[in-house]
């Protein structure tokens, strides 16, 4: 978010109480630093984005006295997450984001309601500025949701744990009744040329399904926010190089897309614009080819710092010097 990387860690309990904080961490170049404490003892979290705003759902499992415990939805404000909605849940174990034809749904897995594990889990639909219950699904001690696309249809799987009598119970897979709209994934531009010094470049992603971006290039780090990938590249002191970013949208006909960051060489060409070169190979001749030879006045040849004989000059500090009788610059006298 805002070209920054956050990590949400729900904390369920400590050794004394279920009344604990969950934590949001902010990435600081090479470590995570605590950013915000959220006063809820959660067991799972799910982030999602709607209309360029960022949200976080926390699944609250147990209050310390009851499994009938509200889960919560937070919205990222100017500089913190703020609670915008309580949702009644029963031993909530998991939130799962599902995007169908550009419409956001969230599924919650209800585990136990203080009396039974045979109870409904729910799918909520985002409408306006909050989640509204959309569908109930019979579950048995539900612990997890997952969603996936096959041949243009959206599926959801629910993991059932216990039916009040046995763990030997069926889990279920459901299919959305209508096919997904045909859609493509677009990432532009296909490559960016960047200089050898450290810097940042961006790519734009267009897709009506959720997407992810990853890289295995060691000198690239990436962040995603809304429809933008921000790539941070390190300084290059060697030959030119190319890094790749893979963008994937589940179910897209042309997914994945691979874009490139092409970084120029950081090797300095000492011969470009060279006027004179004096290696002192037994004399003060210019070996650049420009003919700017030196004339030695009093200085004497000695060993250089590497022990090479007649490869350096010693000056008395009074009147010894090497002079240039004629000097040629860019082919002119």
TrEMBL record:
Any single biological process term in GO: signal transduction
CDD domains (UniProt xref): BACON
Cleaved signal peptide residues: none
Residue intervals of the BACON domain: 210-264
Alphabetical list of PANTHER family matching this protein: THROMBOSPONDIN-TYPE LAMININ G DOMAIN AND EAR REPEAT-CONTAINING, THROMBOSPONDIN-TYPE LAMININ G DOMAIN AND EAR REPEAT-CONTAINING PROTEIN
Keyword annotations of the record: Repeat, Signal
InterPro entries: BACON, ConA-like_dom_sf, EAR, EPTP, Ig-like_fold
Keyword Signal: yes
Descriptive protein name: BACON domain-containing protein
Coiled-coil boundaries: none
SUPFAM superfamilies given in the database record: Concanavalin A-like lectins/glucanases (SSF49899)
Residues passing through the membrane, by range: none
Keyword Thylakoid found: no
Pfam families given in the database record: BACON, EPTP
